[in-house]
Specification:
Two copies of one chain form a homodimer. Chain A is an alpha+beta fold. Chain A is built from five helices and six strands; from the N terminus they run αβααββββαβα. At the A-B interface, α4 and β6 of A face α4 and β6 of B. The structure holds a DNA duplex.
DNA sequence: AAAAAAATAATAACTTTTCCTATTTTTTAC
DNA sequence: GTAAAAAATAGGAAAAGTTATTATTTTTTT
């Protein structure tokens, strides 16, 4: 009998590398479409389905972070320290919000609801200084 | 010269009332489609565009609350006390999370980012007790 | 009563994402 | 090393959710 494979086996394809590099090159909370547009310049054969598949795979592997936006296309971010986001209601740009983690969130929910959560995103809405002029 | 009208003038139509009542009747974080389906039983002539238009109008008037979900259709809630939401990753249902407001959020952001926000939604992800069995 | 404004029904269009299918590439089994 | 199996791909269709368009109806203003 063979030993069990616990790890999900995924292949490292050229397309996956291109997607990973594009996210890390843009560093701009890019949408899947923006990432696709960057890659297609160098590698015209790539398809959007492949970009989406690899973005989601990389997110599952915690190699990039998928930020699900409530009012439009999801954004993809390189992995770094924990932070939150604020989206400008006028120009639509997404900015990082460096802030200490809200430490007791998990305990609050558990105490008041008996419900454990696996994750959360907080996206603030406002107007960036430029649009607020 | 006439006096200025500051308030936005909107008409109170039958359709608007039906939408408002449906949201308050369902009380279930209903989607626009679910609200449409409820109304169309009693008033078959209504169109989806009208439902969407009135839902957004009622949200702007703060008569209902539009909860923008990151991974699917927006939900519409009757207005009540401030609370947060948790969405089950399996059955997709949305539950209320009663919890003291995170009071110092606005100050945190201002202090670390110099950025005032106009709003935010926190949506937790997890598995509801039923799906967690 | 006539003109202007707002809301509507119906449908087209749009955006974002997933799904499907045939093909190609990579891995596994022998 | 070769054949069979599995995974990933390109391209395009399809799905989901929402907004925009247009002609018509309803309401308001004058």
């Amino acid at each position: 009998m063979e030993h069990l494979k616990i790890l999900m086996v995924t292949r490292n394809t050229l397309q996956e590398s291109l997607v990973f590099e594009a996210v890390n090159e843009l560093r701009n909370h890019a949408t899947a479409d923006e990432i696709y547009e960057l890659i297609v310049k160098k590698y015209p054969g790539i398809s959007k389905g492949t970009v989406y598949r690899n973005l989601n795979k990389l997110d599952r592997q915690n190699r990039i972070h998928k930020l699900e936006m409530p009012d439009g296309a999801d954004r993809f971010d390189h992995c770094c320290h924990e932070h939150y986001h604020i989206k400008c209601g006028k120009c639509g740009r997404v900015f990082d919000v460096d802030m200490d983690a809200i430490e007791d969130l998990r305990q609050r929910i558990k105490a008041t609801h008996g419900f454990e959560f696996t994750g959360y995103d907080i996206i603030f809405k406002g107007f960036c200084p430029e649009c607020n002029k």
